[in-house]
Write a structure and sequence with these properties.
Length: about 525
């Protein structure tokens, strides 16, 4: 065969192979995937509609209540979840109400969803629609700002609240078994792969009815023994365990943060929450969502701003996968060196707006960082006194934004999905609100900025914290919550990114140990 003939033969062979692969894929989809959906649809016919009630606790104290209602509709199913939280935090009580609704087809695939979170600082709303199995379009509304974000997914996503039901209806509740699936979380607007492991089978006893006792309080009248499966949902090193019934409906669940929810009767859940309100906040550490996660320090760093470098030994957790090395931080084995940037030595090498494309992701608007919103742009210019004589020096702008956001926001604990325009309207919040507003303001002026999350030293302990990093020739940490430019060396960055990335921090809680082993004071 001539060279040209050999080439044509190889091309023809590749074409035949490609056609065979396509036919095989269609066959697999027809013979396996479709029957799987049919089996799910058949199994889901046995799902029992109804409403479950839950008491939410932390440290044994009621901090909220929840309901979960599953209904059959003409096109499949509808799942509506409601959760109300009243969390003690540093002497305050943060309140939040979350509502979730998801429409499912007969085989439990998500067709659409709605999610809202209301708190003291405002309301966040996200509504999504799935088109053609793998195109998810989400409309986000926060304080009058509306955005639409599209996600192209590799496979149809499973809504987070539906995961146990999907596992149960697929017949995967077998001890020792596991199943992996793409799961969409509306609170972080992200999809992640979750492995569900079936750990144990047992029987749980739950209240089945209530009656008024002699003291006028509700108490269980009858109990129901329910066959239950203990499952773990594992993602990114985080494991969340729960007990579910044969339909995949949650009976009891616990999170690494110390929260627990337990199925009960409506009267008992409302009574427990009312009792907790009347008792007030006890001040116990294990009942405080912030104090309970703090890590005590072996060294007094109350004058942390006087150090130009700090060294920490990190232990108790695997450090792989965290953003510990880079910029002001150097990781050597289990020892982390954090250097506070010298503002006099910073040399950005550019004037605003940033002129190149290499940091594009740190300049663009995001669903919760609405840097193109006219209100954000106006405030950014106001804080940096942008007039005809305005200086494009990114160092000056970074410093003025730090001071401006610090002075603008009232320092208060909030439980919300932080949104820059919402923070600008409410003028209050904790480190998350300070950070998301700062990042939006910086990007509005063409200054690359991103979110860093980790821990910071405050009053004898390290607390979980968020702060911005801005590009000034290197990624430079600033902290508008504390008014620090640059941020002191007690800021230990573990993660860079938004809510979807910050979930990684959960695997540190209750395990991470920090020892200050060496320090260097500034001259």
């Amino acid at each position: 065969m001539t060279g040209g003939g050999a080439l044509r033969g190889r091309v023809f062979g590749v074409a035949i192979l490609a056609a065979w692969v396509v036919l095989l894929a269609q066959h697999v989809r027809r013979e396996y995937f479709a029957p799987e959906l049919e089996r799910l649809a058949d199994a889901a016919l046995a799902l029992n509609p109804g409403t479950s009630f839950y008491t939410l606790t932390m440290g044994g104290r009621a901090v909220g209540l929840a309901t979960s209602a599953l209904d059959t509709v003409a096109e499949g199913f509808r799942l509506d979840d409601f959760m109300s939280l009243e969390l003690p935090a540093l002497g305050q009580t943060g309140t939040a109400v979350a509502r979730t609704g998801v429409d499912l087809d007969p085989s439990l695939r998500m067709r659409g969803f709605s999610f809202s979170l209301e708190s003291d600082v405002g309301r966040f709303q996200a509504d999504g629609t799935v088109t053609g199995d793998t195109l998810l379009e989400v409309d986000i509304v926060s304080q009058g700002s509306r955005q639409t974000v599209s996600y192209r997914l590799s496979s149809p996503p499973v809504f987070a609240a539906v995961v146990p039901i999907r596992v149960a209806m697929a017949g995967d509740l077998e001890v020792g078994g596991s199943v992996r699936m793409p799961v969409f979380d509306p609170s972080t607007l992200s999809t992640r792969t979750v492995e569900v492991r079936i750990l144990e089978h047992d029987t749980l006893v739950v209240p089945d009815s209530v009656a008024l006792g002699d003291d006028g309080r509700w108490e269980p009248a009858t109990w129901d023994s329910v066959p239950a499966w203990r499952i773990a949902e594992v993602f990114g090193g985080v494991s969340v365990e729960s007990w579910v019934d044969d339909d995949g409906r949650v009976l009891r669940a616990e999170s690494p943060l110390g929260f627990a929810m337990e199925k009960t009767e409506y009267e008992l859940s409302t009574q427990a929450l009312a009792q907790a309100r009347s008792d007030g906040v006890s001040g116990a550490v294990d009942e405080d969502v912030i104090l309970a996660t703090a890590i005590q320090s072996n060294v007094d760093l109350s004058d942390a701003e006087s150090y130009d470098e700090l060294r920490f030994v990190l232990s108790g957790v695997e450090l792989d996968g965290f953003d510990l090395d880079g910029g002001r931080q150097t990781l050597r084995g289990d020892t982390l060196i954090v250097r506070r940037e010298d503002p006099r030595a910073l040399d950005p090498g550019f004037g605003l707006p940033y002129p190149r494309m290499d940091l594009r992701d740190a300049l663009q608007p995001e669903p919760l960082i609405q840097s193109a919103d006219p209100r954000i742009v106006e405030m950014a210019e106001q804080l940096t006194v942008r007039r005809a004589s305005w200086s494009p020096d990114p160092r000056r702008v970074a410093r003025e934004l730090t001071t401006g956001v610090f002075n603008m926001l009232e320092k208060t604990i909030t439980f919300s999905v932080p949104s820059a325009v919402q923070v600008l309207e409410s003028r209050q919040g904790d480190c998350n609100e300070h950070t998301v507003l700062y990042v939006a303001l910086a990007r509005a002026l063409g200054l690359p900025a991103r979110t860093a999350v980790g821990l910071v030293y405050v009053n004898g302990a390290f607390f979980y914290h968020a702060w911005p990093e801005v590009w000034l020739g290197e990624w430079t940490a600033v902290d508008p919550t504390f008014g620090q430019y640059p941020a002191d060396a007690s800021h230990i960055r573990f993660v860079v990114g938004g809510l979807a990335q910050q979930v990684e921090l959960v695997r540190l809680i209750g395990r991470l140990r920090i020892d200050v082993v060496e320090d260097s004071r500034a001259d």
